[in-house]
């Protein structure tokens, strides 16, 4: 891979200049996460490795900002990420104290999630998903350094996370505890983040098609083979097998970000276009609260007879609770992004004032 030279043009079809293909990928990823946590079908992790895709998208968007103003890019991403977490902490921490009378110094990670925030077993449905925000925050903080390295040695920068991952999974290095979790998660998805850099610079688009035709199947096959030969109690679930996840997700992300389809069809489908916009505008809120909604869907569903519709009945209850969370907490994302707060943002975002800057 050569060092990146210039950024290619994007397929932009929305009035606010957003790449709607990337928005569509993120919307699909969010929906896949919800369905997986609802039904825990291991095969879904192969059909669409949502977390790898989300980190790939994050890397692409971060690169677009870092190449212009690294310091401002980091501040902007952190500003957008943390308020929604703070709101969740403001709700859950008092509830944990009321229920368990148990607190920890790790509560500090609810303010700045450099490691997974403290949570008692009672709120595990909420805290079990926070690793993503921890990993995302570290990627954001390290992106200026990673971008510097990528501009000089793109291939080496892409491979470093996979080497670290292999060293922790099959090599001599054992990691554990909160810091170990951070290292493994970053190593698992670091190559996807760097692939996002390659997408943003256009380098992925320029990569030799024959090489990609060999590389992608090799990564997918290696990841799948490792998963099938290292099954956990949940079977061949990529989410529980880091090395398989890292290899398979990278192969998938290289394909997903290589293509650049025309998205005019989405703009012509108003309901679907609005849904994609809503899912992107409320991505953090939905991600943070969806597992809580799923946990509550079963006892609440029993009260209203959701079993009459089978699993789809409980899914409907979960979706309704997620929608409630969006209505109650979603506006925080608008404030964090310096947009005018809206209950259901299905159109182009509006800035909060004439001097607001979108990054």
From TrEMBL:
Which residue ranges run through the membrane?
21-44, 50-69, 81-99, 129-148, 155-172, 178-198, 210-228, 248-267, 279-300, 312-332
> Is the Lipid metabolism keyword given for this protein?
no
Q: Describe the location of the Acyltransferase domain by residue ranges.
A: 20-328
Q: Which GO terms describe its molecular function?
A: acyltransferase activity, transferring groups other than amino-acyl groups
Superkingdom, natural source: Bacteria
Query: Sorted alphabetically, which keywords does the UniProt record give?
Result: Membrane, Transferase, Transmembrane, Transmembrane helix
Record has Transmembrane helix as a keyword: yes
Record-linked InterPro entries: Acyl_transf_3_dom (IPR002656)
Would you tell me the protein name for this molecule? Integral membrane transferase
């Amino acid at each position: 891979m050569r060092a990146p030279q210039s950024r290619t043009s994007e397929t932009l079809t929305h009035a606010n200049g957003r790449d709607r293909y990337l928005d569509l990928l993120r919307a699909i990823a969010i929906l896949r996460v919800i369905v997986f946590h609802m039904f825990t079908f291991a095969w879904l992790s192969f059909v669409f490795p949502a977390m790898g895709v989300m980190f790939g998208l994050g890397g692409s968007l971060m690169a677009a900002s870092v190449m212009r103003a690294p310091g401002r890019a980091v501040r902007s991403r952190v500003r957008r990420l943390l308020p929604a977490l703070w709101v969740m902490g403001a709700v859950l921490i008092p509830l944990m104290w009321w229920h368990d009378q148990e607190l920890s110094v790790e509560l500090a990670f609810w303010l700045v999630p450099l490691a997974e925030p403290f949570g008692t077993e009672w709120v595990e449905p909420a805290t079990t998903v926070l690793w993503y925000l921890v990993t995302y925050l570290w990627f954001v903080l390290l992106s200026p350094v990673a971008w510097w390295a990528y501009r000089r040695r793109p291939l080496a920068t892409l491979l470093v996370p996979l080497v670290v991952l292999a060293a922790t999974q099959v090599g001599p290095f054992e990691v554990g505890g909160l810091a170990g979790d951070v290292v493994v998660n970053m190593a698992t998805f670091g190559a996807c983040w760097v692939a996002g850099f390659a997408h943003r610079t256009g380098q992925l688009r320029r990569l030799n098609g024959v090489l990609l035709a060999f590389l992608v199947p090799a990564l997918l096959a290696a990841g799948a083979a490792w998963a099938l030969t290292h099954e956990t109690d949940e079977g061949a679930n990529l989410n529980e097998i880091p090395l398989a996840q890292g290899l398979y997700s990278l192969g998938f992300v290289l394909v997903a970000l290589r293509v650049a389809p025309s998205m005019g069809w989405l703009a012509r489908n108003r309901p679907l276009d609005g849904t994609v916009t809503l899912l992107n505008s409320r991505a953090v809120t939905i991600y943070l609260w969806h597992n809580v909604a799923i946990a509550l869907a079963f006892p609440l569903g029993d009260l209203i007879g959701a079993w009459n519709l089978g699993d789809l009945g409980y899914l409907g209850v979960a979706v309704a609770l997620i929608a409630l969370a969006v209505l109650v907490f979603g506006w925080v994302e608008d404030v964090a992004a310096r947009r005018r707060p809206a209950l259901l943002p299905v159109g182009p975002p509006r800035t909060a004032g004439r001097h607001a800057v979108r990054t």
